[in-house]
Amino acid sequence: MLKVVKPEGVVLVFLALIALFVFTGALANIYRGQRLRRAESHYRTGVQLAHAGRAAQAVEEYRAALTYSHDDNRYQLALVLSLMDLGRLDEAESHLLELHENDPNDALTDLMLARIAARQGRTGTAVTDYHQAIYGLWPDDPSKNRLQARFELIDPPDPGELVTRGMTVSAYDFVARIRLPLPLDEALEVIPRTVGVPAADGDSATIIELGGDARTMPRWLAALPCPCEVLEPPELREALRRHGEALAAANG
C-alpha cells in the first residue's frame, strides 16, 4: 500500500536541501578565502625578502603562494624575477613559457623572455621576443613600455650582464635615480614597476631607480609626461641637459 506524502513534508525536504546547499557554499567560500589570504601573505613576505636582496628565500615564499593560488600572474612573475636574480634562467623561462601559453599576446611576458634570451646569447630568439613585446598587449601605459622595448632592441646591454636586479635595473651605462614630483601611485602610472624600482619620497614625490644607457636614457627621460630630477649619476644630468639644448636649438 502506497503512502501519500503530505505537501508539508515535501516542502520541509526542499527547504532542508536549500539550507544544505547554502551551508556547503558558505564553507567553500570560507575555505577559498583562507587559501587566498595565505597566498597573499606568502607573496608579501616574498616581496620583502626580494627587496632585501634575499632572492633564494623569496623564491620559496612565491612557490608557497602559488600552491594556494596557482593562476595568479603576480605570483608567477615575482617568482620569475627572483629566479632571474639567482641566475636560474632556465627555470624562469619555463614559468614564462607557461604564462605565454595561457596568454600569447602578453607583452610583459615577451619582454622578460627577450631579456633571458639576450642574457643567454640567443640573439635571434631575443630579437623575435623583443618584436613581440613591442607589438603585444600592454595593460598599463602601452606607448611607454613599447618605447622601452624598442630601446632595448636597438641597443641592448651586454647579454651576460642584462639581468642584475630583476628586470628593472640592468647593467647599462647608467643606474639612475630620479625624482618625480608625484605621489607613489601617480608615479607608477608614469614609470611602472616593470621599468623601475620605486620608493615614496614623502607624500608628494617618488624616487625611482632604473637602468639605462648613455644614448637612449636622456631621450627617454625627456619624453616623460612630467618633469623629473636626476639625482644620480651626474653624467646623466649633463647628458639630459645637452639633449635639451639640442632640442631647443633645433626648434629655436
Report strand order across the widest sheet: 2-3-1-4
**Shape, please?**
elongated
Termini gap: 106 Å
Roughly how many Å is the radius of gyration? 25 Å
The strand count comes to 4
- How would a textbook summarize the main sheet? 4 strands, antiparallel
Number of continuous helical runs:
10
The topology string of helices and strands comes to HHHHHHHEHEEHEH
Which ranges are low-confidence, i.e. pLDDT below 50, for 5 or more consecutive residues? 157-171
Q: Which class best fits the helix and strand makeup? A: alpha+beta
Helix residue percentage:
55-70%
The fraction of residues assigned to DSSP E strands is 5-15%
Descriptive notes:
This protein has 252 residues and is of the alpha+beta class. Among the domains are: 96-158; 164-247, no CATH class. 62% of the residues lie in helices and 9% in strands. Helix 1 (7-51) runs antiparallel to helix 2, helix 2 runs antiparallel to helix 3 and helix 5 runs antiparallel to helix 6. It is elongated and about 90 Å long. Residues 157-171 have low confidence and may be disordered.
